[in-house]
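Our consortium's second objective concerns turning raw sequence data into structural hypotheses that experimental partners can test. To show how far this objective has progressed, the report includes one record in full. It was chosen at random from the queue rather than selected for favorable results. The single chain below, 355 residues long, was entered without modification.
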Amino acid sequence: MTVVANATVVAVGLVALTLLLSARDDESGERRIPTRAEPAVPAPASQPDPPPPVVATVESARAVGANELGLVPVIMYHRLLTKRIASIDRTPAQLRAELVKLAKAGYVPITAAEFVSGRIDIPAGAHPVVLTFDDGHPSHFALDADSQPKRDTAVGIIYEVAAKYPDFRPVATFWVNRAPFGLPDQAQQEAAVKWLVDHGFEVGNHTYTHPDLRRLSPKGVAEQIVRQERLLKKLGVPSSTTMALPYGSRPRKAKIAREGKWDGTSYRFDGVFLAGAEPSVPPYAKSFDRTAIWRIQSNGKQGECRRWCSAYWLDWLDEHPEARYTSDGDPEHISIPKRLRGNIISKAAKKVIAY
């Protein structure tokens, strides 16, 4: 990876991903962070006029140490359970603690769609993080009797942390299968999707039945993706621009996961995401591969997770700030140290501010 001179960053194949998913956590005794009653989530409404746009300069980029070719943590979550069953499960307390850690370190959430678009609009000096939740589990999103996100769901916790840390933007990406959030009928699914999309969340394609795509023919892969695209369209989801591979398993013909056609319906994604095990370079880096975008499993530091999961990587990025994506505050430009100029794709060269 051209932006990080560190021997720990290595290519990880499917064998490593399989080991990663079996990793254990070392946080069984994690202290639960006390929280106050969650404030009501504001309904989507007209927002006040935004402040004037920031226009980055060499001086301003240098002042904040901007590096918009740095590494971005794309964190992968699965179920939230009070008592974990699988190694990839997290408790609500563990998610809450990790989000607080991110907020305190200056990370600002963006969606996977925003990330792959290359237009990362966060304040100067801040770092993007992409929060992704696979499978559309009921613990990710549910509303209470007051039509507010339930407290210990992923969305409820995200809003809780954002209320305490106002710079922590409450958005995430939910990649779902044929029964989003475990809801039994189409009307409930439509209502859930509408709520999420109206509040700035992304809902996207995780295939229809969550198969191992490497075991399927190209036609079978395309069928799985198209069936889910049709369902999402029926539920009112805008066309997906991203998808996540079940189990992180790439089809034998890798490009069919990004672009294809089945039964008269075509699809094309701006980015296809793996299941681990490193931070990602941004989309204007030469080494960025839209068919295989790295994610980091949320987990502790035991077993394979000693070097591949979120506890390790977030500490590593704190210890190596020069390797981390730091924003210049100007989404129209890409500010980088001069030494990295050769690592950027040619079509983005005109946007570069090098210092």
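The partners drew two points from this record. Confidence is low (pLDDT under 50) at residues 1-38. The chain has nine helices and twelve strands. Both points have been shared with the crystallography group to help prioritize constructs.
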